[in-house]
Amino acid sequence: MQTGAITSHLDVAQLTLYAFWLFFAGVLYYLHRENKREGYPLISDRSAHISVEGFPPVPEPKVFRLASGHEVLAPRHEPPEEVRGVPTGAWPGAPLVPLGNGMQDAIGPAAFAARADEPDTCFDDGRPKIVPLRAAPDFFLATEDPDLIGWTVLGADGTAAGSVVEAWIDRSEVILRYIEVALAAPLAPRTVLLPMPFAALSAKTREVRVSAILAEHFADVPALRNADSVTLREEDRICAYYAGGTLYATPARAEPLL
User: Tens of pLDDT along 3-55?
Assistant: First the structure.
């Protein structure tokens, strides 16, 4: 037999190849199983007694220690969320129609993930990452950028909803995340956050145009628990509210284009 041969039909190279195949199959099995620590088992819309787990099964619970010092168990038991909508048909996967205010019922584009109800923090100092400029004296708007303070905020109907009173910066990414809007009468006398992706700026007219919602809808933008910070869950709810307006702000938006 030649060097490396174990038998006349098997050598070390073949054993190495077979060992690699077994190792690779084990890695795929492990990764696919670990991928099911969040979101599984799936809940079927056909019956509350049907759960979809698939192969491989959901792994045993494991404790994850986060950088913040908190511990998270995954997978973990979570009560089913209340779905504030009814299906348009009797078939599985039928679209849902909100029962009330589509922008607040977490249906369709207004859906959001229930992340932790605490602010996201910077890695270096552990302080809230997204804060207003009044709470971040080391940051300021670039001189070549327009000063948004005092600009009028218009809804999709062209009506003024209020004016900009503050800018919220991401201390980690050093970009503008939100602008704070003081609502005008007859809306509620408070301030709300407007995510920058939903804002169209016009330096010529000093206006911020928002096509996602009407002026009257600003009164129902989810409020903040702390005036100088925003939690992860509050961010999700605020962004989902504006996103929901792209479909539910007016009855015509929920109709087919053709």
Answer: 656 677 778 888 899 999 999 999 999 999 999 998 888 877 666 677 788 88
Alpha-carbon dihedral 65, 66, 72, 74, rounded to 10 degrees: -80
Span 180-199, pLDDT tens digits: 999 988 877 899 999 999 99
Quote the distance between the C-alpha of residue 68 and its chain's center. 20
Backbone dihedral region for residue 4 (phi beyond 0: left; psi -120 to 50: alpha; all else: beta): left
Strand partners, 194: 179
Phi-psi region of 41 (alpha: psi -120 to 50; beta: other; left: phi over 0): beta
Q: How far apart are CA 181 and CA 166, in angstroms?
A: 7
Whether CATH 3.10.129.10 fits 108-254: no
Q: What is the pLDDT of residues 204-257, one digit of tens each?
A: 999 999 999 999 999 999 999 999 999 999 999 999 999 999 999 998 887 776
Kindly indicate whether the domain formed by 1-80 is annotated with CATH number 3.40.50.620. no
Contacts of 65 (CB under 8 A, 6+ apart): 71
Is 174 exposed, middle or buried, given 0-12, 13-18 or 19+ CB atoms closer than 10 A? Answer: exposed
| pTM attached to this predicted model | 0.81
CA–CA distances in Å: residue 206 to residues 162, 218, 258:
13, 19, 36
**Rounded distance, CA 258 to CA 255, Å?**
9
Extents of the domains making up the chain = 1-80, 108-254
How many other CB atoms are found less than 10 A from the CB of residue 143? Answer: 6
As given in the structure block, the two tokens for residue 122 are 């910077």
